[in-house]
Write a structure and sequence with these properties.
By secondary structure, the chain is α+β, with helices and mostly antiparallel strands. It folds into two domains: 53 residues, no CATH class; 41 residues, no CATH class. It is 31% helix and 20% strand. It is built from three helices and seven strands, in the order βαββββαβαβ. The strands form three sheets. A three-stranded antiparallel β-sheet has the order 1-3-2, covered by helices on one side. Strands 4-5 form a two-stranded antiparallel sheet. A two-stranded antiparallel ribbon has the order 6-7. The longest helix is centred in the first third of the chain and has 13 residues. The mean pLDDT is 90.
Amino acid sequence: MPEGTFVTPVQFGASLSRAASQELARMVTSGKLVRVRPGLYYKGVHTALGLTEPHPLDVALQIAGQGSGPAGFSAASALGLTTQVPSVIEVAVPL
């Protein structure tokens, strides 16, 4: 698994979901993964200060699913149209 990616137990197949969950929990305790929420893990980049955490916008887009994207000031910031950092992450989701 490449660094900077999200991992879920479902990616390992429905029949292996329980075993995959246990292995992912072991990887969290050993410091190889970060648990974002139940069933969602992140493999960050290892630095001298430890494992990096995901950007809040990336987490929101991962949870929102396919077809979602930044909205409002989050979109303007992501497109480089403003240097201001939004205080609230806004995500547009498909109906």
